[in-house]
Amino acid sequence: MNKLPLEKRVQILSMLCEGSSMRSVSRVVDVSINTVSKILVEAGEACAAYHFDAVRGLKSKRIQCDEIWSFCYAKEANVADAKAAPFDAGNVWTWTALDADSKMIVSYMVGDRDAETASYFMDDLRERVDGRMQLTTDGHKSYLDAVAGAFHDRAIDYAMLVKLYVDLGARGPERKYSPDPCIGAVKRPIVGKPDERHVSTSYVERMNLNMRMGMRRFTRLTNAFSKKIDNHIHALSLYFVWYNFCRIHKSLRVTPAMAAGLSDTVRDMEWIVALIDARAKKPNRPTTYKKHKPEVANPSNAQWNWWLANSIALGVRRGLGGRPSRPTSRSKQYRPRWSLKHLRLTQRS
């Protein structure tokens, strides 16, 4: 099996985590777009499995959650008129939970912006953090039932940060590409005794900017959006493992995984390539090889009768001087008719 050199695989994965599109990566590295897609899938599966197993038992004290919007194949308003749109086309929401102290992505979930996805998201967050924590979310109502269901038997300090926006009524380009101005925020304690000084979603919203800058498929007003939901999830899995374990945070001077106590060293992209190779199936090659024996051809009676009837109709049997013997080896297998060259020779004689 052909395999790219380690340097090229590292370059492809690094460019995918630094805001380059898949086709720009294929042009720069001089590989096929199918090769880039294959490496993305392999890296996404390896990183998702590693994050699932490694990011557990955290002692986080402050967690911030938010959702970021993107779309797959087509925007929600254009799905009905899209040609051959898959069932998962349209809006795609990525739910993220960030540790405010270590800046680590603790949990993430891809789905709709509904109560079902919120419940799955909170259940996953509960399994990764030990002890009591302070949780802060925005004013999305789906969080209320999700947090109550996931932490019904566990102490937690939960508060919502509800932001207030004003509608200026403008319908120009600035209204189309810019959100309404925020005029204030209300801190609402929900469960426990959350510290109002730490009721904030600033860090997780800054992480949303990192995602839009680091993954080309999140950039607005381009054609680099995700065409398949699977590749969208693979790109997220790769980016979050690279962000947690490989990228040094400028304010912390270490990686988020080191700040959270999950790692004692800075990982690099070669380490992610090693994760991919560890999951790859080894070729199932036999230890010994048997010598090939030619198979004996045994045409059925029906095939033999058909060949005999056609040879008589063509007058070939007269030129051959009798009935030919049956073929006995692979090199003399039965053929339904004689070649035209042989037929001309028998007719001349």
Describe it.
The structure is a single chain. The protein is α/β, with parallel strands linked by helices and 349 residues long. The protein has two domains: 6-279, 2-Layer Sandwich (Nucleotidyltransferase, domain 5); 301-348, no CATH class. The protein contains 13 helices and six strands. It has helices spanning 6-16, 22-29, 33-54, 115-128, 142-150, 173-177, 202-214, 229-245, 256-260, 269-279, 301-314, 316-320, 340-348; strands at residues 62-72, 90-99, 105-111, 134-138, 157-165, 182-191. Strands 3-2-1-4-5-6 form a six-stranded mixed β-sheet, with helices on both faces. A hairpin with a 5-residue loop joins strand 2 and strand 3 (105-111). Helix 2 (22-29) packs across helix 3 (33-54). The longest helix has 22 residues, at 33-54. The two termini are 55 Å apart. Residues 316-325 and 327-349 have low confidence and may be disordered.
Summarize, please.
The protein contains 13 helices and six strands.
Give the topology:
Elements: H1 6-16, H2 22-29, H3 33-54, E1 62-72, E2 90-99, E3 105-111, H4 115-128, E4 134-138, H5 142-150, E5 157-165, H6 173-177, E6 182-191, H7 202-214, H8 229-245, H9 256-260, H10 269-279, H11 301-314, H12 316-320, H13 340-348
Parallel strand pairs: 1-4, 4-5
Antiparallel strand pairs: 1-2, 2-3, 5-6
Helix pairs in contact: 1-2, 1-3, 2-3, 3-8, 3-10, 4-5
